Amino acid sequence: MLNMLRTLISKFVILIALLLTTSIVANTAEVVSIERPKNVIRNFQNGTVDEIFSQYDSAMAKLLPPHRMAPIWSQLLANYGDFLGFGLQDTITNGDNLIINTDLDFEKAVMNFMLSVNVKTDKITGIYFSEQEKKNLTPQIDKPIPSYIDTNSFIESDIVIKDKYDLIGKLTFPNKFDKNITFVLVHGSGPSDIDGTIGENKFLKNLAWGLSTSGYAVVRYEKLTKRFGRELVKNNPGMTQDDEYNNSIQGAIDFIKNNSKLNNSKIVLIGHSQGASAITSFYNNKDIEGMILLAGTPRKLYDLYTEQLEYIFNVDGIVRPSERKIIEEHKDKVQYFKNFKKEKVELDSLPMGLSLEYLQHLDEFDPIKNLKQSEKPTLILGGSHDYQVTKVDFDIWNSNLASKNNIKLKFIENVNHIFGETEKMAVPADYQKYTPIAPVVFEEINKWINNL
């Protein structure tokens, strides 16, 4: 979905399970050389991933065979620019493992490379890449503010949204609150910050500022999985889409109802990508007045993911054997899930790194059924140059819902997944360009909202 590129990178290539024990042992830095991570990175650079594979323990060998390692370095370069060199290092011990953290300096960001090595066997037991710090190559002040935003027409304040954990949030409040409508912005897939940052774009911030310039109040918040993902998985390994989204949305609704400036306003949910599907769970919620679905899909995530993999790997016109292997591996996992009848899931057998419970919930979740039952005013917007959620998805919405008087559908030409203007079908690299939301999106929302 919005963020399937991020999912591709974080779940399928960069985020690799770290297999550790829990007891603490004495300092072992002298046993395993801290130069080891640099040698592993050089193997990634040189394409000699078989050399890395030969150093894995049995669990890692099953988890990360050579064909899955082959695309990692090119994906890093594609998203973070040229590799400039190594930075600081530190080590910690965890059980029989020495964990070595090494900063990797790329053109667009500083990454952390975590390597776990068993000091008894000298085998690699875990690898983990994560983004440490995004470099501000294009300062925000240098980016032109779209004509539909007037930063003097609203104020923005810090708030807290209650979920299982407190979430940092923002209330964008117009100087003249004459529309008496408060929007709640709901993220797409993957961990996302409060601004909905995707490459050089801050989609949710752009949306909030544009809406508040028009006289609406807007609530947005950091997604639960951004800061508390590990705690969630640890405390609730069987979490579902409802766990990921619904409590946060309800927390935002409760905040509005308990705020003296907002509690008499109408509440409208705006969901982007997976969030667009997720908000349909609130189709009969008495506290909300309407819903807006931006680049949402009625289809299953794993099917969209298949299409996205095929599109991304074929952007240059060549699907390499290692890339074809990834596509086929994903398809095999989808079939494994669809045919699943056993009590125990085999290791690394499910698509997209998702749990069985999450996938089973997605299979049962039906946003079209929700909207067919709903009488709430709903606006569905799609974009012609969105490769992540395509016209296929919009046509499914349209064929099932166009006859309902409370639902309006609009397909917008020449915009991508984050509704930035583009002359041709989008590609992943487009997110590294600053492309604010097209004015037509706000025009469509304003026209629709007049009939709310």
List keywords for this structure.
alpha/beta; Rossmann fold; 2 domains; eight-stranded mixed beta sheet; four-stranded antiparallel beta sheet; 16 helices
Structure description:
The chain is α/β, with parallel strands linked by helices and 452 residues long. It has two domains: 4-134, Nuclear Transport Factor 2, Chain: A (Roll), CATH 3.10.450; 140-302 and 353-449, Rossmann fold, CATH 3.40.50. The protein has 16 helices and 14 strands. The protein has an eight-stranded mixed β-sheet with strand order 5-6-10-7-11-12-13-14, with helices on both faces. A four-stranded antiparallel β-sheet has the order 1-2-3-4, with helices on one face. A two-stranded antiparallel sheet has the order 8-9. β1 and β2 (97-106) form a beta hairpin. α11 (301-313) runs antiparallel to α12. The chain is globular and about 65 Å long.
Brief summary of the model shown:
The chain contains 16 helices and 14 strands. The two termini are 28 Å apart. It is an alpha/beta fold.
What is the CATH domain class of the largest domain? Alpha Beta
Fraction in helix: 25-40%
Task: Give me the CATH architecture of the largest domain, please.
Answer: 3-Layer(aba) Sandwich
Number of domains: 2
Distance between the termini: 28 Å
Order of strands across the widest beta sheet?
Answer: 5-6-10-7-11-12-13-14
| Low-confidence spans | 1-31
